[in-house]
């Protein structure tokens, strides 16, 4: 078996697929929001509460991550993916902002398994030298889901109704659950893995991070400075992704006067930039490591580079040419995923395998808490202040996150 055909790459391909569906299902509402709000009389502030409900649900990631650590990936991931598939389909029957808010809350709860589960797969199946690239691949899935959403919603609206987009996505997600149950198993028990590949994975794990088997203690983790060293940067970085996914379509329609066809043509470009960032971040880390930089310092340096690039988003609200605005939003997507995939991967670099799901969930709680606050601020004040101050704030947050990453994280012994 050649290296490119090793089983671990089919596993990460499967994870990449579920992340496409995860982010597609959550992105549909943002793209369809102008149509839904007009059709159902939903105000901007009410839409803010709808997005906040999703964030409130997904803030249960620590519980979801702990469950994945406790009951195992195969069954746990299947349960949560099945739940979000059904909830996505139910969006097609929703009416009124309260109905949407309730469904978004439950969707956030179920979809909270996405990052903890994916990161746990990376920790189990990949040696340390490949984790950055593997993490980048599954995060490409997140960006691709958002890339697919604008043309899918435009097609659904132009050929019938926005509800079709939810039905299609939920149905495909249910099919993924069956594929997952058929193919996934840990390296120690997978029926198709060779002894050579299993030995290669085990030899590439850091000493001390794979031996523990006890269930993780949340209290102990909360006293670990490395947890806060990756959670606080997540809290400051995630509002960018939420803005691109939930508020950018509304911004393009209300402030830039895009119609549905222009949305289909241009609204996916920031997420294409995000896909490139998923590859760029790990490439920067690999380059620095080849030059003798420690893995943790290489990840911190890649995060800092992404934070510097994020400064460009400050100009989105001020430029007059909508094409330039799209270009700056695309830079924001690129910069965000450059730093985001880097800090997300660090949970597997700093903690034992049996704690990775819980740590990723706690960091996700912080990230989605930041997004929740930011989304409520936009929903409350955007009609009075415009979008300009929020883009400027996004340009500053990641620089502060880089400071936390450099001062709080300690390298493992």
How is this fold's topology laid out?
Elements: H1 7-40, H2 44-58, H3 61-71, H4 73-91, H5 96-111, H6 114-125, H7 128-159, H8 163-183, H9 195-203, H10 218-222, H11 225-254, H12 260-266, H13 269-290, H14 295-309, H15 322-350, H16 353-385, H17 388-408
Helix pairs in contact: 1-4, 1-6, 1-7, 1-8, 1-11, 2-5, 2-16, 3-4, 3-16, 4-5, 4-6, 4-8, 6-7, 6-15, 6-16, 7-12, 7-13, 7-15, 11-15, 11-16, 11-17, 13-14, 13-15, 14-15, 14-17
Brief descriptors of the model:
Growth Hormone, Chain: A; 413 residues; mainly alpha
Q: Taking all residues together, what is the mean pLDDT? A: 87
N-to-C series of helices and strands = HHHHHHHHHHHHHHHHH
Could you name the CATH homologous superfamily?
MFS general substrate transporter like domains
Number of domains: 1
Q: What would you report as the Rg, rounded to the nearest angstrom?
A: 20 Å
- Largest sheet, strands/sense/barrel: none
User: Structural class given helices, strands, pairing?
Assistant: mainly alpha
DSSP helix fraction: over 70%
Summarize the structure in words.
With 413 residues, the protein is mainly α. The chain has one domain (3-185, 196-204, 214-408): MFS general substrate transporter like domains (Growth Hormone, Chain: A), CATH 1.20.1250.20. Helices cover 80% and strands 0% of the residues. The mean pLDDT is 87.
What can be said about this structure in brief?
The protein has 413 residues and is an all-alpha fold.
């Amino acid at each position: 078996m050649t290296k490119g055909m090793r089983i671990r790459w089919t596993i990460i391909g499967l994870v990449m697929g579920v992340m496409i569906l995860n982010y597609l299902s959550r992105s549909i509402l943002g793209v369809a929001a102008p149509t839904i709000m007009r059709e159902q009389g939903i105000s901007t502030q009410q839409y803010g509460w709808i997005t906040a409900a999703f964030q409130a649900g997904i803030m249960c990631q620590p519980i979801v991550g702990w469950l994945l650590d406790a009951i195992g990936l195969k069954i746990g991931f299947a349960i949560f993916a099945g739940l979000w598939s059904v909830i996505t389909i139910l969006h097609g029957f929703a009416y009124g902002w309260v109905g949407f808010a309730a469904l978004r809350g439950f969707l956030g709860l179920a979809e909270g398994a996405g990052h903890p589960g994916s990161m746990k797969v990376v920790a189990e199946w990949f040696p340390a030298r490949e984790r950055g690239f593997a993490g980048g691949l599954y995060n490409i899935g997140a960006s691709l889901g958002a890339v697919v959403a604008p043309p899918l919603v435009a097609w659904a609206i132009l050929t019938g109704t926005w509800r079709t987009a939810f039905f299609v996505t939920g149905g495909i997600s249910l099919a993924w659950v069956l594929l997952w149950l058929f193919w996934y198993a840990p390296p120690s028990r997978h029926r198709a893995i060779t002894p050579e590949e299993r030995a290669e994975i085990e030899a590439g794990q850091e000493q001390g991070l794979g031996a523990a088997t006890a269930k993780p203690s949340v209290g102990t983790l909360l006293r670990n400075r490395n947890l806060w060293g990756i959670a606080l940067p997540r809290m400051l970085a995630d509002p960018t992704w939420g803005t691109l996914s939930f508020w950018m379509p509304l911004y393009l329609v209300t402030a830039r006067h895009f119609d549905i066809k222009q949305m289909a043509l241009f609204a996916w470009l920031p997420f294409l930039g995000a896909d490139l960032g998923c590859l760029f971040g790990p490439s920067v880390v690999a380059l620095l490591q080849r030059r003798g930089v420690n893995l943790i310092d290489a990840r911190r340096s890649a995060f800092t580079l992404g934070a510097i690039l994020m400064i460009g988003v400050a100009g989105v609200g001020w430029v007059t040419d909508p094409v330039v605005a799209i270009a700056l939003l695309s830079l924001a997507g690129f910069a965000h995923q450059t730093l985001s995939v880097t800090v997300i991967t660090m949970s597997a670099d700093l903690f034992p395998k049996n704690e990775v799901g819980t740590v990723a969930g706690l960091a996700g709680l912080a990230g989605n808490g930041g997004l929740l606050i930011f989304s409520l601020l936009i929903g409350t004040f955007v009609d009075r202040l415009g979008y300009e101050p929020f883009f400027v704030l996004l340009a500053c947050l990641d620089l502060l996150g880089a400071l936390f990453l450099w001062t709080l994280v300690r390298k493992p012994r």
